Amino acid sequence: MKLNTKFGEFGGVYIPEMMVAAMETLENSFIKYINCFKFKKELNQLLNVFAGRPTGLYLAKNISLDLGFKVYLKREDMLHTGAHKINNALGQVLLAKYMGKKEIIAETGAGQHGVAVAAAGAFLGIPVKVFMGEKDIERQKLNVYRMKLFGAEVVSVNSGSKTLKDAVNEALRYFITNVKTCYYLIGSVVGPHPYPLIVQKFQEIIGKETKEQILAIEGKLPSAIIACVGGGSNAIGIFNEFLDDKNVNLIGVEAGGKVKKHGKTLSNGSIGIFHGSKSYVLQDKDGQIKEAYSISAGLDYPGVGPIHSFLKNLKRAVYGNATDEEAVDALKYLCKTEGILPALESSHAIAYLLKNKNNFNNNDIVVINLSGRGDKDVNQLIYADSDLYGGC
Ligand SMILES: *Cc1c(COP(=O)(O)O)cnc(C)c1O
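Above are the sequence and the pyridoxal-5'-phosphate SMILES. Below is the predicted complex in structure-token form.
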């Protein structure tokens, strides 16, 4: 059996020849274990016992009252390490173990992916090396320390702009030289085939649970599902189970940044090759990748998973955006109305709902994927927001 390497014209395998054999081995192992009863059972147990699945889906009654239609929250923020990233980290660390790998490597910008992989590696007893730009190490001290507490080695990368894209290059170099023993763990539905499919598979559980839960509570499907999009893993994780339910509107929300030219890969980008696959990407006319910018580090990525480019062109999903300011306002709104502190990333989805509330009526049911919790963002909020300094 072989998997499709593409989503329409998007995706593919744009990689150095030295990586081709490794990607084929990865694909074959993925197909083998994802269909293996023992693997599936063990992963399920990990998700339940270690990560805290299933996560809740419940009616946010204060928001619903305020907006005049039903709003449900899928609580991925309740997971261990604070976000949906642990679903994928556990899946791939387990896959690496089944493949007999001796070491996991990952790259991280904000550090959230690194933390999830470090925790999964500690629990499953496999060493983890995380490549991180020197600048990001400085900016994300808390997450760097968390990774170290979990026993991971954090490798500082001081080439180029000293940020995520340089960490990716360094991780690739290390991977190519240690290809037999080393597993490269990618954190979103990006990168060359088969990574987008692997990460999607390990995040599908979000939508599967959501469908079961909403049918049990409401007896019908929601009218819309809204999720934030960085690389796109939490969004496709919740969308996937509903792709064939044409009456469910699927809405992805990208970071709009501070000014008009910031962010918004799917609305402002053009088709290009980035990190091993073809998708929409922020690039200049020569194909050089532009830096993304967002207040939320998890959405600060100039590319997007090929599945989202495909769904956009098919018009099966629509993609909007929210600015930094709208996201911060939405974060505060959720805190005050529901007593929940969402991640800045997830706050973009809430902001979209608030901006577009007039598009919904009292028969509508909207599900928001709350991809993560905001404890990690509190320091940044204190500095960004002098008004909170003076007390709420
Ligand atoms: C990393 C992150 C995201 C963005 O990643 P996706 O792959 O687009 O889901 C969103 N929310 C949170 C809380 C994150 O940590």
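The pocket of pyridoxal-5'-phosphate is lined by residues 83, 85, 112, 188, 228-235, 298-299, 343, 345-346, 371-372 (CB under 6 Å).
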